[in-house]
Every structure is written in C-alpha cells, then in structure tokens.
Design brief:
It contains 24 helices and six strands. With 556 residues, it is mostly helical. It starts with 5 loop residues before the first helix and ends in a 9-residue tail after the last helix. Bound molecules: adenosine monophosphate.
Length: 556
Amino acid sequence: MDHATPLIAMLVAGLGLAFILGALAARLRMSPIVGYLLAGIAVGPFTPGFVADQKLANELAEIGVILLMFGVGMHFSLRDLLSVRAIALPGAVVQITVATVLGALLAQALGWGWGAGIIFGLSLSVASTVVLLRALEDRGLVTSERGRIAVGWLIVEDIAMVLALVLLPALAGWLRSDTTGPAPDAAALATAVLVTLAKVAAFMVVVLVVGRRTIPWLLHAVARHRELFRLAVLAIALGVAFGSATLFGVSFALGAFFAGMVLSESELSYRAAEETLPLREAFAVLFFVSVGMLFDPGVVLREPLALAGALFIVLVGKSVAAFLIVLLFRHPVGVAMTIAASLAQIGEFSFILAGLGMSLGLLPEAGRDIVLATAIISIVLNPIAFGVSRRLEPYIEAAQRRLRGTATAGEDAAEPGGHVVLVGFGRVGTLVAATLAERGVPFLVIESDADRVADLREKGYACVEGNAASRGVIVQAGIRRASELLVAIPGTFEGGRAIRHAKEANPGIHVVARAHSDAEVAHLGRLGADVVIMGERQIALEMIAASGVTSRPGSS
Ligand code: AMP
C-alpha cells in the first residue's frame, strides 16, 4: 500500500476490513463490534501484514467520540442532567473509588507499588463513552430513566478524569517514591484542583449561556438549506469540542456533549441528530478499529493471572458496586442492572490514563498492556453483559415485587400516556390531526419537514421533529405509553421501520398504517400493523359510490 497516503490507507483498510469482519460477526449472531475490533487487530502492529497509522487512527476515533457525545447531548436537556445528579454524582464517585482500591490492591499483589496501583485502578474504573452510548442507542434507552442515569454517571466520570489528568503530573514525584518521598506541596495541589474546577465551571457557563443563544439561532438561520444545515451541525460539534478543549482544558467529549445539550430544547435537535447519524456511525466504527490496533495478543500468555484479576474488577467488581449503589438509591432492579451492565467495560479514558502513567514513569509497561487487553475483552463481552441483565431483569423484578408486595415504578413515567402518536402532517395527517383535536383526543405528531413542524407549533399541537423511521424519534414520542400509532406517511420503508420500533417498545400498541399497493399492505401487516388502509382502494370505493353507477338488471 502506498505509504504517502496514510489516511486513505487507514480508512480503506480499517473500514473495509471492519465491514467484512463486522458482517461476519453479525452472521454468527455476535455484535458487529467484535468484527470491528478484530479488524483493528488485523491492521495493528502486532499482527503481520499491513500496519495502519496508529496516531491517525486515534484522531479519527476521537472524532467518533465527539460526534457521539454531541448526538447524545442533543437528547438531553440541562433539566434531564440535573434530575439525575442525586444518584449520578455519588454513584460515580463511589464506583470510581471501589474500582481504584481494587485495582491498587491487585497492583500491590503484582509488586508494582501504590503509585502504579492508583493509576492502574483509575484506568479500570472509567467506562468507555463510545461503548456505553452505542449500547444504550442500540437498545433505544438513551432518553429512558436508566439511560439518563447512565449518561449522567458518564459525565461525572468524565469530569473526574479531567481532574485526574491534571493532578497526576503534579503528584507524580510523590507517587513514584511510593508515598514515602517528599509530600507534594498541598497549596500548589489545591490551586491546581481549584483552577481546573473553575475552568470546567467557566466552560459550562459560557456554553450554556452564550451557546444557548447563538447555536440554535445559527441552525435556524440555515434550516432551509439541507447541505448548509448539515455543515453547520458538523462545524458546531467539532468546533465547540475543539475550542473548549483548547480554551478550558476539558475533554473533547465533554465539550461536544454540552454543545449538543444547548440544542436539545430547539425543535431542530432531532433533525440535527439525524443528519449526523451516518458520520457518527462511521467514526464509531473507526473508534473500535483503533482500539483493536492497540491490542497485543501476547499479553494473554505473559500475564494471564493479572489479566484475569483486572477483568474480574471490571466485569464483576465495578458492576456489583454500581448495582448496589443504584439499589441503595431506591431505583428499580431493572435500572440497577442496566447501569451495572453498561459500566462493565473500559475504553478510551483508560488508555489515556495508562499512557500518562507510563510517560510519568509510574506504570510498568505490563500495566498498560493489561489495561488494553482488559478493554478489548470487556468490550467484546459487553453485549453479553446486557443480554444477561435483560434476561434476569424480569425474574429479579418479580422477586422484588413479591418481597415488597407492591408494583415497582416503570420508567419514563414522565412521558405522556395513553396518547395517539401520528406520523406525518401532510395531506392525510392534517385531516387526522384536525379530527383528533376536535374530539379532544391527546396526540403527538412526528414530522420530518421543518416548515410543517412550524405549522404544527403554530396550531399548538405537540410534535417531535425528525424521521419516524429512527428508533430514538419514536421513543421520544412516548411510544411506550401511547395507545395508538397512526402512520400517515406514503413511504412504506420508513413507515415499516416506525412500526417495527413501536411494536418492539410497546407490543400492545394498536397500529393503523397507510399503503398504496397490495404488496405494501402485506409488508406493513407483517411488520405488525393491525389495520392497513390502501389509499387507491379507498379512492376506488369512493368513486363508485359517487358515480351513481348502479347494477344493471340481470348482472350478478
Ligand atoms: P402526504 O403524503 O401529503 O400525506 O405527506 C406526508 C407527510 O409526512 C409530509 O408532511 C412529510 O414531510 C411527512 N413524512 C414523510 N416521511 C416521514 C418520516 N419518515 N417521518 C416523519 N414524517 C414524514
């Protein structure tokens, strides 16, 4: 391969192999992520053949993190974030402490000393943003109660890591001599902490106050121009992430999350989320490829016991700690299990911490290799953790109900309930909406066209802007608690996807859909529509009825 074009070589080899191996993994009923990681190992330095540029891969992966966090921020309002602080803050702090102590003890057993132990433990304590968000998105959980807690938890972890990255160099001298050396200058340390916290606070104020006015305004200004709108979304996501990292020293991920969050109250947020989806997915794939590239399979043979210990901390220690904390805060078992499963992995922050630990002369190389191997294995096992938690959830919830003798609260209680979700506000949808309004039936409209959304708002109808084919949009419309879904759009492909997502989230929902041919009627019926109205057939019937044609005597 031509070495003069390392970026192209990386993209072609990375994406191409990720596609082939991802498809293979999906075929074998595994998560495609396993395929992406294997693709990374294949183009990494530890396997023969083509070796992609690691530095480039990491930067591309970072773009993936930015776009992903931006997308998640758009589903989040400040109110959502604050609503989970009571659990996310203590939860993340306790869990980081538990994992760090366990990691430090393991390091001690390996004879590495406490300095190495603290870094090793911290590395094992932080979950990967990408893995967690992908897991939540794949299951349509981002805006659910458990999703909000998990994301809030992630934000606290993120801020804790920003602090750790600032403090570690200041503490390195002391930690290196295994806490027996000269104590660090307490005043200097306190100043470093305060300055960092002040920067994070200043960053939040600037984004939430200035960004809240300018970002939605900017998007509204170009909303009619599809290409410019997409460009604006990308420029804002990348620009704010980069700017806040440079000016305020916060991570790219945190910057992007807040940039997305200021958009969340704008009706354009769903459109913006959708427009960035293809890029987000492509870069998330590159993230997994870049993780795979770091993996040195030899470590499994060199350090089997240490690796097993680290895996135990990540898969069991952290999960049990998270599970118990969430239960302690009186959340349902299901919520506790999802949080535990989503945190039972480590990723990008762990690499950064381990890398810093090595460059400070604190962590032995074996420590970094074990962190990397633990990351890969825990990411591969993560879908299984979710599967297990999902399967166990009904049993544990039933047991809990029996114990308490009461029903536990379901999630998304804040969403409207018993309402009708209407998809499309065109020729058909407007008539349906007018009748629903006239009859006083509560309803919410999903519409993808910005002008029609403006019209809806003018009329005072509740609506969600976005493509109904996307699971996030359907869930946002409160589908879990809705009683009826009326699909009044002509596109059967998108209508079909909307029906599938709705039935997955709420199997009891009654679905009425619109079609234009017998094949479409059959297709939508297969996907779960209870009644399908074929437009042309209704027109034919109306024509006959209006024509005055009557049967001739003698005909049957
Ligand atoms: P009509 O065919 O006149 O009933 O118009 C269909 C309406 O549905 C238009 O307003 C479209 O913007 C809207 N629409 C089409 N596809 C989707 C979709 N996938 N999600 C949400 N709205 C849609």
